[in-house]
Design a protein that fits this description.
The chain is of the alpha+beta class and 141 residues long. Helix content is 23%, strand content 15%. Strands 2-1-3-4 form a 4-stranded mixed sheet, sandwiched between helices. A two-stranded antiparallel sheet has the order 5-6.
Length: 141
């Protein structure tokens, strides 16, 4: 299975998502999007394929979002794409592409909907158990 993850190794959610992909027995193509940002055309396509708007892909925390006035609802997609192009940190992560679809995997276990069965237990970095020893997703309350 061909899988691509737009990844930030400094992000716990991104690290957990990558680990869940690997727990399914898949070694994905890892794109560290801060080093190799996707083109504006690719960002638009990823949003569309994920059923999201470009605005949905914006990250506010730890970014220049507020300083750039990106909360203004009148800003066009082109303007938002200009901002993402100039400041890749504005692109929320992790974005995962599989033959099953594209998703912004927040929380990280959202990636399970795009993958084959897990190959064993998975515990997130914070200690939350999301997959049992039989590779089954653990229901959350």
């Amino acid at each position: 299975m061909d899988v691509v993850i737009y990844h930030n190794p400094d992000c716990g959610t991104s690290r957990n998502t990558l680990a869940l992909i690997r727990n399914a027995g898949i070694e994905p193509h890892v794109i560290e999007y801060l080093k190799t940002p996707p083109s504006r055309v690719m960002v638009r396509q990823l949003a569309e394929r994920a059923g999201l708007t470009v605005r949905d892909l914006l990250r506010e925390k730890g970014t220049p979002y507020a300083d750039l006035g990106l909360g203004d609802p009148s800003l066009t997609d082109d303007r938002l794409l200009d901002a993402i192009e100039a400041h890749p940190i504005l692109l929320n992560r992790p974005l995962v592409v599989t033959p099953q679809g594209v998703a912004l995997c927040r929380p990280s276990e959202a990636v399970l909907d795009l993958l084959p069965a897990q190959q064993g237990e998975f515990v997130k970095e914070d200690g939350e158990r999301v997959v049992d020893e039989h590779g089954r997703r653990i229901a959350t309350a």
